[in-house]
Amino acid sequence: MVTPLGSSRRGILLINDPVWVSKILTDHDLFPKNDLFVEALEDLVGNSMFVTSGDTWRRQRKMVDPAFSHMRINRAFDFMAAAVHDFETRLRALSASGDTFSLDAAMSHLTADVITRTIFSVPLEGEASQQVFDDFMRFERQVGSIDIKRLLLDKPWSPTTQPQPVRDACARIRQHLGTMLDTRMATEGLDDIAGAVLDARDTDTGQPFTREELIDQLGVFFLAGHETTASSLTWAFYILSVRPDVVARMREEVERVVGDGPVLLEHTKRLPYVRNFFREVLRLYPPITFLPRVAARDTEIAGRRVKRGTMLMIAPWSMHRHQKMWVNPDRFDPDRFLPEREHEMTPGAYIPFGAGPRICVGAAFATIETALILATLVRGFDFTTLDAESVRPFARLTTRPAVEIEMRVAEVR
Ligand code: HEM
């Protein structure tokens, strides 16, 4: 359950033991985020809470948490619903024309639209937000692969730089985010996530975030907040396209609970099958495949001596599919999350949002957003994958299909 991965200048351990996973994710001073991972993202999200450690992270997390409180997310719901409404219009046009579309690109666009509306109160159609999105797609394609040579040969904490095209894309994204932030700061009376982060004060000094820090945090909400959700929804709609039995159960639940009208916030909390379906998608296709950490000092893990600088890879992907932790792990079975089957689950084996103090700040946001999207679109449309047999997952920045999934959609009459 704790396995060395190959031989390299710095040790690499794959940790599949839920007890040790929990200890490592909880002690984030001894096991901070891995330096290679931090470097890969630093040009884009600077010193944001996603990559910082120690007291810097503690201060940032305290200031950011209120922006994702239940009350605040509830207020973001109308922005989410407006984005989904526009997306339905797009799908209706695709249904009428019979044109095919890339599921991955469509989901990235939809979730980026949700994020720009909920953070900045602007739709993705705005020029600056569209440019952030386009450059982000470029960044995502280039940064996702690991440099194996470096992994094997470099000493821990060896400084490196990203290739120039990646750095250029990051600089452009930060510039656009700065423009969006300045426009947002000049607008009064908006009740969005940017507003909550602008109002946040350090509890010790009373100081707000600086402009650079704001760009760091808002950049990470954009990155972590749309890329992960797009990945999970891509797998969700792919599964729906090949499982008519699951579609029938979901549609029945949505029609019974919601009826014909719009899906409201209160409905999203009363759709257990939709929720368990999404949990099962996150189990088999966790968007974040690795939670990378590093040993900050010499220590011991599961009776094994671990040298400072050893990389610790916690892999939701392998934990979620582990034969010893799940009954029929390869079977897609949303009902495994029913309360009466809870005893089948291994405590600590399900970590799509991470665990411990650094658990995903946007988990509640993503849960409501995806329930709204799934309920609305499953009731209204049938999805067909053109070449379902050839679909394969691939670990990039998140879990994506190796080749884009081509789809056709038909409106349900
Ligand atoms: C299905 C959707 C999502 C999944 C599966 C997901 C997954 C995760 C995971 C696994 C982590 C922990 C990473 C680690 O410990 O190394 C994390 C952290 C984080 N996520 Fe999410 N996430 C999702 C949606 C979101 C959304 C919608 C937002 C914001 C709008 C967000 C913002 C963040 C931030 C800021 C962190 C860093 C927290 C910290 O280090 O204190 N995520 N996410």
TrEMBL record:
Domain of life: Bacteria
Presence of keyword Heme: yes
Record keywords: Heme, Iron, Metal-binding, Monooxygenase, Oxidoreductase
GO terms for MF: heme binding; iron ion binding; monooxygenase activity; oxidoreductase activity, acting on paired donors, with incorporation or reduction of molecular oxygen
Binding site for heme: 360
Cofactors required: heme
InterPro entries reported in the protein's UniProt record: Cyt_P450, Cyt_P450_CS, Cyt_P450_E_grp-I, Cyt_P450_sf, Cytochrome_P450_monoxygenase
Family annotation (PANTHER family): CYTOCHROME P450 (PTHR24305), CYTOCHROME P450 12A4, MITOCHONDRIAL-RELATED (PTHR24305:SF166)
Similarity field: Belongs to the cytochrome P450 family.
UniProt-recorded name of the protein: Cytochrome P450
Organism listed in the record: Gemmatimonas groenlandica
